[in-house]
Write a structure and sequence with these properties.
Blueprint lengths: L3 H12 L12 H5 L4 H10 L7 H11 L1 H6 L22 E9 L1 H7 L4 H9 L1 E8 L3 E9 L6 E7 L4 E5 L5 E10 L2 E8 L4 E10 L2 E8 L4 E9 L1
Antiparallel strand pairs: 1-2, 1-10, 2-3, 3-4, 5-6, 6-7, 7-8, 8-9, 9-10
Length: 229
């Protein structure tokens, strides 16, 4: 256990590591309430030691948590070896109801939807039923009132080069190389016509499931937050 101040120092140090924002989603208070071993080791695993900003940043981490820092030891390619505890995956099994959205309307307009359909999407009742296995995730999507694609099922094999899918309005897209990155299920996301290159992350946050979509070339992102039924 560490103090909130100590947790804040750890988070600040970890934030300097490239791409660490994906794995730093909780407040210092929540970090202080629990064991930090798995959280810190996961961030160290997914961010580059070689690209880290200065030796001082590494010193903060090593000094604050020497045992954890040592256990996530660096391999020859600069990547740490994760402990068994550190690679535990979140459980997405169950029925998830859309609870809230962040920047959904603006994001939909950025990929070509008109204003009215983008607004309607924020009012729809969306349910995702997920069956999670070791090597695949099976999704059943339901939208009410229906936009253009009220119910559909997709099987997503982990590591597949591409998986044909459609969004809630029926537009075709491809899920690219879906894979686990620690506690995040990550994939590229390509709209077919018109083309848009996106990324999508799925993770748990405070008991909710988050679907986090980014459009890197346009600097815009959105999140959909689901509550388990």
């Amino acid at each position: 256990m560490v103090s909130i101040r100590g947790a804040s120092r750890l988070i600040d140090a970890l934030r300097q590591r490239p791409h660490a924002h994906r794995y730093l989603r909780s407040s210092p208070a929540s970090w202080a309430r629990e064991s930090l071993d798995r959280r810190v080791c996961d961030v160290l695993h997914h961010t580059s030691h070689a690209e880290s900003v200065g030796a001082g940043n590494e010193a903060v981490l090593a000094g604050a948590m020497p045992r954890v820092f040592a256990s996530c030891r660096w391999g020859s390619q600069g990547a740490p070896v994760k402990s068994r505890e550190a690679i535990e995956r979140p459980d997405f099994n169950g029925v998830w109801q859309l609870h809230g959205t962040e920047n959904l309307s603006g994001f939909m307009q950025s990929i070509g939807y008109n204003f009215f359909l983008a607004k309607a999407a924020s009012l729809a009742r969306v349910t995702q039923t997920i069956e999670q296995k070791e090597d695949e995730l099976r999704f059943t999507f339901e939208v009410n009132p229906p936009l253009l694609s009220p119910r559909r099922t997709s099987v997503v094999p982990v590591g597949a080069p591409e998986v044909p899918m459609s969004d809630d309005a029926g537009r075709e897209m491809l899920l690219l190389n879906p894979r686990w990155e620690g506690e995040v299920f990550h994939a590229g996301l390509r709209y077919v016509d018109p083309p848009h290159e996106l990324t999508i992350d799925r993770y748990l946050e405070d008991g909710y499931m988050v679907e986090h979509v980014r459009y890197p070339s346009r600097g815009i992102e959105m999140r959909r937050i689901f509550r388990k039924q």
